[in-house]
Structure formats: C-alpha cells, structure tokens
Amino acid sequence: MTQDQSSNSPGREWEYLRFRLRRFGLCLIGMTVCLLLYYLGFFGTYNGPLNPKNIGKFLDAYGVDKGYIAYFFIGLTIVLLIWNWILNTFNLFRGKKLTCQVVEDDCYCQAKIVKKRQVKKVNGRTGIEYVCSKGHTATLAHFHPVKKGPWSYCLCLAMALISGLCIYWI
C-alpha cells in the first residue's frame, strides 16, 4: 500500500483542514454581511439608510408609487421567465454550445465544433459549415440549450407571488 492510499496519509488531514477553514471563512463572510446589513437598517430594527421606512421616504421623494413597484416586479418576473430563451437564441446565432453530429463507430462524435461561413464552389453562395475538433465537416450540428434548474423555477414562483401581492396591494 502506498502512502497516498493509507488512511493515515497527511494529505487527507490537510484536505480536511482546508475544507474546514474554507467553511469557517465562508461563515465569517456571511456573518460580516449580515452585521453590515443590520447596522444599515435592512432588517428594520436599527435606524439606518436601508430601513424600510427610510427607503419608503426616499422613493416617495422621487415620486415612486405602488404602481411603479408592481410594474417593476412584473417586469422582473418576465425577465426571470425568459432569460434562458434569450441566452439560447444568442448562443445559437453565435454558434456556441454546438457539438458534432457525425456518426462514428455507431455513436455520435460529440466534439465541440466551430461555425464557419464557406462560399460553395457550385453556385457561389455563402453557406454555413461546421468543423469539429476531430476534423469532421457537416452542414448540421447539435445545439445544447441552457436549461433552468429547480432554483430558477422557485425564484420565478417567488417573483410571481411578489408581483401578485403588489397588484393586490394597489
């Protein structure tokens, strides 16, 4: 048995210590952020610039009323719903997140490809050609879209609820 495979390996102890120190550092950062927000009045118990009453006075001074806040949250909900459609459309037009579709040994190549514009010799028109890192050329490629995860849907639901409360509040 080598020293790396041994349960008494010093590498494992340092790895555990590094893991614990990283977690401790993240806890300290989180505590610092919470204390800053507390003393800025974000939680409403301390009088500071982020106190909800002070935020309300500030927004009222600039003429922001409940309708504007409702419109803001409705717009934010719409953005949260369609952000991946916009990103996927942008990536598709730029030729990003594409893989090769050439069948090789009864399976797809799946290598990353580069989108190139080629002038065809037959008719002189410009066409799109995809070249993968293994050298395959094809006229079609497989697109891998960005998909939303469960946290994104939870955030959309929360924003929809806040928007509904804002509309009801008006």
Brief summary:
The chain is α+β, with helices and mostly antiparallel strands and 170 residues long. It has three domains: 64 residues, no CATH class; 49 residues, no CATH class; 47 residues. Helix content is 52%, strand content 14%.
Low-pLDDT residue intervals, each spanning 5 or more residues: none
Q: In percent terms, what proportion of residues is strand?
A: 5-15%
User: Share of helix among residues?
Assistant: 40-55%
H-E string: HHHEEEEEEEH
> If you average the pLDDT, what whole number results?
84
Structural class: alpha+beta
Distance between the termini: 72 Å
Query: Could you give a short account of the major beta sheet?
Result: 3 strands, antiparallel
Shape field: flat
Computed over alpha carbons, the radius of gyration is 27 Å
Strand neighbour order, sheet with most strands = 4-5-6
- Count of discrete domains: 3
The number of strands is 7
Question: So how many helices?
Answer: 4
Describe this structure in words.
With 170 residues, this protein is α+β, with helices and mostly antiparallel strands. The chain folds into three domains: 1-64, no CATH class; 73-97 and 147-170, no CATH class; 98-144. 52% of the residues lie in helices and 14% in strands. It has a three-stranded antiparallel beta sheet with strand order 4-5-6, with no helix packed on it. Strands 1-7 form a two-stranded antiparallel ribbon. It is flat and about 75 Å long. The protein starts with 9 loop residues before the first helix and ends with a helix. The model has no long low-confidence stretch (mean pLDDT 84).
